[in-house]
Amino acid sequence: QVRLVESGGGLVQPGGSLRLSCAASESIFRFNAMGWYRQAPGKQRELVAAIISGGTINYADSVKGRFTISRDNAKNTVYLQMNSLKPEDTAVYYCNAYVYGVHYWGQGTQVTVSS
Predict the structure, then answer these.
(1) CB neighbours of 75 closer than 8 A, spacing ≥ 6?
(2) Contact yes or no for 35/96 (Cβ under 8 A)
(3) pLDDT of 72-103, one tens digit each?
(4) CA 32 from chain center: how many Å?
């Protein structure tokens, strides 16, 4: 059972930045993929960014050029650097790990972009 713990959410003004962290309970080197999803009130959960084993990175069109996903295998941690935040980025952000056909989720961290 993989455990994922997110941190770094909070309240930020439009145009500001936040960095989310996701710490895994075991080595992420063997994971097939890790990523970040978000869910805004009344909307479906959507993919924000993902790193596939081998190094491929995917971003949602809405965050390209503003968000950057990265990983630190030594710390078993994945990060999401979010810049130029907009009110429409407000959501609960979830870390996800895909390991041999099984999806694991963190508990989520709230990001609110508001003046």
Answers:
(1) 23
(2) yes
(3) 999 999 999 999 999 999 999 999 999 999 99
(4) 16
